[in-house]
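cron nightly-structures :: item 1 of 1
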Amino acid sequence: MKFSSLTDRIVNDDSDSPRKIDPWAVHNLAVQRAAQGDAITMLSIGQESNETTPDIVVEAAVDSLRSGRHHYADVRGDERLRAAVSSYHNRLTGQSTAADNVTIYVGAQNALFAVAQVLLESTDEVILVAPFYTTYEATFGAPGPQVVTVKVEASDGYQLNEKSLLAAISSKTRAIVLNAPNNPLGSRYTEDQLTKIVQACVDNDIWLILDAVYIDTVDAESLALPHHVPGSENILITVGSLSKSHRMTGWRVGWAIGPDPLAEHLGNLSVCMHYGLAPFVMDAATVALEKSAETPALVRSVMRARRALVLESLVDLEPVRLLDAGQGMFVLLDVEPLGTDAYTFAMELLAAHDVSVLPCDGFGPGGQYLIRIGLCVDGQQLSDACDRIRQFIADKKTS
């Protein structure tokens, strides 16, 4: 039987690798082994595995469900939730938005996919900064545009060279996608870079899509954002979620925020795509935003402590390089000096020491030798995992 060409475009396939790599193969194997009873330390996913959603949020969902809030809802998202998201977004970014600028989705991934669908088509180009999150190439390539990658270089300290990005713009460029802070690198952008990028988007009628799911897991004063740049209100789309900031990865609540015409098109797509979220989930999300403001601060504090532990444990790993942007939910290892690629390293580490890390082979050009270590567990478990990573590297050097 015949399938559409879309089925080829939504396959995560890293063109920078000599073989086809499933970016989640190591993690999926680790999950399978853990389900069979193996004691796996899971550092391969961006969530606090040993933490739970705040009680006030859980109770709000239970109370809402019992009150009968389990019928159809506004496909754009409950108005109270959209207002709460707008207020939260305005506080984080300084931008002035309203509930009508917000469309609620089944997580940020769903929001990114929807945005791609209403902006892009086969005659367009979309620019991604690589390494990028593993789903980006399939998500933004799904409508059929040419995906153009701008690779950050080790010689630039793994920071974006905006001249390279601006040089990649063509008459076909319809959108540029940024991730702040970047996953997996944790890198950020400067005010000067963002000013130049926004101006280029305004001048060339290009959308700027900002994936900001990690924005409230870092100290706000350390993060330059494009929302203050004149003209950004007309071209900027911000995608966010409660997954990281409020410990709600499994609740699947995300959003896209942009100009009024965008919200109208996204609403029309939502009718065709998911027909709205469960009202009791949206009620819980509203409570999270309105009454659990301390949770993001707690997440930031936990991440700082875990990062300090990892950096202390993995210092002086010659010849492997430890890459750390100072904040966020990950640190990276560059394993190229060991003469192995990231996928092989991660698979062998899992087999030898029961530690699951995420190889960045599937994160686009530049990720083939990078290992992403999630700050996913706490205390002794994290320390023991670092010891096993260090031992594995020592064994690789002498083998």
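cron nightly-structures :: done
Residues 55-291 form a domain with the Aspartate Aminotransferase; domain 2 fold (CATH 3.40.640.10).
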